[in-house]
């Protein structure tokens, strides 16, 4: 079973390196949802998220021939995605279209009656974090990547990934605590 | 292992899982640490709800389309690289041409003493750079290519003029490079009509242009 999986992964990597479109389709089927979710949380818009995913696949296709065997295609793809999102954010700042979507705007875009107040508050607080801390939080806490995977995606040592996540969570915790999001009854 | 309030930050940093377990034990009897831990865990619980999923049936077809276009561009890039190699060769070809001219000049002037007419010297030289028959053959081949290229160009021109697809634009770019190489080679040949090397290079570029135009027409038809 394990060796069959390894062969499948090897075939996928080989297809990926050769620029085979079915290999890319397989990657999309496996990771597309998580890619969209990360991008949406980083960019604050599902339309921008889809553009970023498309951009990531295009960049991966262009660089596939130079992909090192032995590395994980998925983490490489996620790294490209995260960088594509950073590029979009930087382009927004350069275009001076105004500030990035505010935490409240981000929350409002998805708010519904069923939304938990803590989730909405967290979403708002998350938008105020520095870029890399926010990404570390999204990767590990929201999408469930291990620190080893997150460190590869962020291109940092594993210890740095832990530190980024710790700082992010601590800052979120303090912000939410101060705003009374944990215990609304006490805050009023 | 035992933990105290002062170990809170170190425990939350995640470097030592056993320290976190010890702090949880400590929190059973410490309301302040219990509260901190509860909030810390609440962040993680709420985080999972940030995962977003939505249906986007048009996304993969859109990506696939872009990748397919990129793949076609790749197919066109190989000939473009070949065309670029022509332009890279041009300086070397120019040096070779200059060398040929200088050698010819040396041969002509070395024994002439400035008294004999240069033309008669050419006619009596045993090893001219290019014999008349070879020139005829080359010029005949040139004419064949030129005629074929003109016909193909007439057919391709309307398609290329309004080209918007990446593939056609790639062809147009390649043809521009070839035309530029042809112009430069012709200018060099004007200065040394008998240089076989330059003429062969020109023929090779004509052949490349003909092939490119034929490929373009196939692309347009398909």
What does this structure look like?
The complex is a heterodimer of chains A (188) and B (222). With 188 residues, chain A is mainly α. Chain A is 77% helix and 0% strand. Chain A is built from ten helices and no strands. Chain A has helices at 2-17, 21-43, 46-63, 73-95, 103-110, 117-126, 131-142, 147-154, 158-179, 184-187. Chain A is elongated. The N and C termini of chain A lie far apart (57 Å). In chain A, 36% of the residues are buried. The model of chain A has no long low-confidence stretch (mean pLDDT 84). Chain B has 222 residues and is an all-alpha fold. Chain B has helices at residues 8-12, 17-27, 31-48, 59-110, 118-124, 132-161, 166-191, 196-221. In chain B, α2 (17-27) packs across α3 (31-48). The longest helix of chain B is centred in the middle third of the chain and has 52 residues, at 59-110. Chain B starts with 7 loop residues before the first helix and ends with a helix.
State the major sheet of chain B: none
Radius of gyration of chain A: 18 Å
User: What is the CA-CA span between the terminal residues of chain B?
Assistant: 74 Å
Give the % helix of chain A.
Answer: over 70%
Query: Mean pLDDT of chain A, nearest integer?
Result: 84
Q: What is the count of DSSP helices of chain A, taking H or I runs of 4+ residues?
A: 10
Q: Indicate the percent of residues in helices of chain B.
A: over 70%
Termini of chain A, distance in Å? 57 Å
Instruction: Note poorly predicted spans of chain A.
Output: none
Q: Sum up the overall morphology of chain B in one term.
A: elongated
Low-confidence stretches of chain B: 79-86, 111-127
General shape of chain A: elongated
Tell me the number of strands of chain B: 0
Per DSSP E runs of 2 or more residues, the count of β-strands of chain A stands at: 0
The fraction of residues assigned to DSSP E strands of chain A is: under 5%
């Amino acid at each position: 079973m394990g060796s069959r999986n390894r062969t499948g992964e090897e075939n996928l990597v080989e297809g990926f390196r050769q620029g085979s479109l079915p290999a890319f389709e397989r990657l999309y089927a496996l990771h597309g949802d998580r890619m969209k979710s990360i991008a949406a949380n980083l960019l604050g818009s599902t339309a921008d998220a889809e553009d970023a995913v498309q951009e990531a696949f295009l960049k991966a296709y262009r660089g596939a021939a130079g992909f090192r065997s032995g590395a994980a295609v998925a983490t490489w793809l996620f790294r490209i995605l995260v960088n594509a999102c950073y590029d979009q954010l930087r382009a927004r700042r350069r275009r001076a279209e105004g500030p990035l979507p505010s935490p409240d705007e981000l929350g409002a875009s998805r708010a519904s009656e069923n939304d938990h107040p803590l989730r909405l508050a967290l979403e708002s607080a998350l938008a105020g974090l520095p870029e890399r801390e926010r990404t570390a939080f999204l990767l590990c806490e929201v999408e469930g990547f291990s620190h080893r995977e997150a460190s590869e995606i962020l291109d940092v040592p594993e210890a740095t990934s832990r530190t980024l996540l710790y700082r992010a969570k601590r800052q979120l915790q303090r912000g939410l605590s101060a705003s009374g999001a944990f215990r609304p009854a006490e805050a009023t | 292992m035992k933990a105290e309030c002062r170990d809170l930050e170190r425990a939350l940093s995640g470097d030592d899982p056993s320290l976190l377990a010890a702090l949880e034990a400590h929190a059973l009897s410490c309301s302040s640490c219990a509260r901190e831990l509860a909030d810390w865990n609440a962040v993680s619980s709420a985080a999972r709800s940030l995962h977003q999923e939505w249906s986007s049936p048009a996304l993969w077809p859109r990506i696939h389309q872009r990748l397919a276009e990129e793949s076609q561009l790749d197919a066109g890039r190989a000939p473009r690289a070949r065309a670029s190699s022509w332009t890279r060769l041009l300086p070397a070809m120019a040096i070779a041409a200059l060398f040929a001219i200088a050698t010819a000049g040396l041969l002509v002037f070395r024994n002439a003493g400035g008294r004999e007419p240069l033309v008669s010297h050419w006619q009596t030289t045993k090893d001219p750079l290019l014999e008349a028959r070879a020139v005829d053959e080359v010029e005949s081949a040139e004419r064949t290519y030129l005629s074929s290229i003109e016909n193909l160009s007439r057919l391709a021109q309307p398609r290329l003029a309004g080209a918007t697809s990446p593939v056609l634009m790639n062809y147009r770019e390649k043809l521009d490079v070839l035309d530029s190489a042809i112009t430069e080679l012709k200018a060099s040949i004007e200065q040394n009509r008998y240089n076989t090397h330059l003429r062969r290079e020109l023929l090779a570029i004509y052949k490349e242009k003909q092939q490119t135009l034929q490929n373009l027409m196939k692309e347009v038809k398909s």
